[in-house]
């Protein structure tokens, strides 16, 4: 079973469960922490939900760093793996992470089922959330709230810090999700550029 087969089945399932394309966006390869990690598949609606795919050909070497970055940003996170990695994955990810198992039926179709459903992330980092915004988006969010004075030439870092300083976390998260959902559709390979990169 290849990564692309698991990914395709997961995207199909998410789009079936969340059919409204306005309120629900399903993306591949969402960059986190300025490109330090990429979420394999991300559902953006009233929450930011990420899925890390581990096919039989993958190993779990990069998983600790991926967990670290997912934990900073995502409301819900899950690992999607085959039986080869399922038991090891269950012990490797935090308790609030979901664990989804991918199997193949007699017709070689990928089937997905929960071994453990995800819980809400207990500790999100506001700066890591703000870094999902491009510089112009961050400035516009400040401008809409009258918080942009003296910041027209500020770096993205200054703008992110200002957003974190002035906005409650839930308001910041809602603004980021709205910006992500408003971005134009792209191909799977081009769906998202690294956070803040123009």
Terminal CA distance: 36 Å
How many strand segments? 6
User: How do the helices and strands follow one another from N- to C-terminus?
Assistant: HEEEHEHEEHHHH
Rg of Cα set: 17 Å
The overall average pLDDT, rounded, is 89
Oligomer, anyone? Answer: single chain
Shape descriptor reads elongated
Strand content: 15-25%
Level-1 CATH class name of the largest domain? Alpha Beta
Low-confidence stretches: 187-198
Strand order, main sheet: write it out: 1-2-3-4-5-6
Q: Can you walk me through this structure?
A:
It contains 7 helices and 6 strands, in the order αβββαβαββαααα. The chain has 198 residues and is of the alpha/beta class. The protein folds into 2 domains: 3-122, 3-Layer(aba) Sandwich (Trna Endonuclease, Chain: A, domain 1), CATH 3.40.1350; 126-182, no CATH class. The chain has a 6-stranded mixed beta sheet, with helices on both faces. Strand 3 (48-54), helix 2 and strand 4 form a beta-alpha-beta unit. Helix 5 (135-144) runs parallel beside helix 6 (156-166). It is elongated. The protein starts with a helix and ends in a 16-residue tail after the last helix. Residues 187-198 have low confidence and may be disordered.
């Amino acid at each position: 079973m290849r990564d692309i087969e698991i990914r395709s089945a997961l995207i199909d399932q998410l789009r079936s469960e969340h059919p409204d394309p306005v309120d629900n966006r399903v993306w591949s390869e969402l960059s986190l922490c300025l490109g330090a990690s990429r979420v394999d598949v991300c559902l953006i609606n009233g929450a930011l939900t990420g899925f890390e795919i581990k096919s039989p050909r993958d190993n779990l070497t990069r998983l600790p760093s991926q967990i670290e970055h997912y934990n900073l940003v995502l409301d819900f996170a899950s690992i999607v793996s085959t039986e080869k990695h399922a038991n090891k994955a269950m012990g490797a990810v935090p308790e609030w992470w979901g664990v989804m198992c991918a199997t193949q039926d007699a017709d070689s179709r990928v089937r997905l089922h929960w071994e453990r459903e995800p819980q809400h992330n207990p500790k999100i980092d506001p700066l890591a959330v703000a870094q999902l915004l491009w510089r112009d988006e961050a400035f516009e969010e400040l401008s809409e709230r009258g918080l942009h004075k003296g910041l027209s030439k500020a770096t993205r870092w200054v703008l992110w810090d200002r957003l974190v300083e002035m906005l409650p976390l839930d308001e910041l998260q809602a603004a980021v999700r709205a910006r992500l959902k408003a971005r134009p559709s792209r191909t799977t390979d081009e769906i998202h550029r690294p956070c803040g990169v123009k």
